[in-house]
């Protein structure tokens, strides 16, 4: 019983901002993934620059 309960709640995606019905769900997820990837890259680059300045 406990295992099936964990599986039910294991993976959830909430795509509200990108999915308004104007695009397919696939396009909405692709846009979300691309935006998150860019944000993570920019954060990584900023941290790298700060580390290089400190060194």
Helical content (DSSP H or I, runs of 4+): 55-70%
Note the run of SSEs as H and E.
HH
| Assembly of the depicted chains | single chain
C-alpha end-to-end distance: 53 Å
Give the integer mean of the pLDDT values.
Answer: 79
Total strands: the figure is: 0
Major sheet, described briefly? none
Give the overall form: elongated
- Provide the low-confidence segments as ranges: none
- Please state roughly what percent of the residues sit in beta strands, choosing from under 5%, 5-15%, 15-25%, 25-35%, 35-45% or over 45%: under 5%
Radius of gyration: 18 Å
Describe the structure.
With 55 residues, this protein is mainly alpha-helical. The longest helix has 30 residues, at 25-54. The mean pLDDT is 79. It has helices spanning 2-8, 25-54. The protein contains two helices and no strands.
Q: Which descriptors would you attach to this protein?
A:
mainly alpha, 55 residues, single chain, elongated, 0% strand
How is this structure best summarized?
This protein is mostly helical. The protein has 2 helices and no strands.
How would you summarize the topology of this molecule?
Elements: H1 2-8, H2 25-54
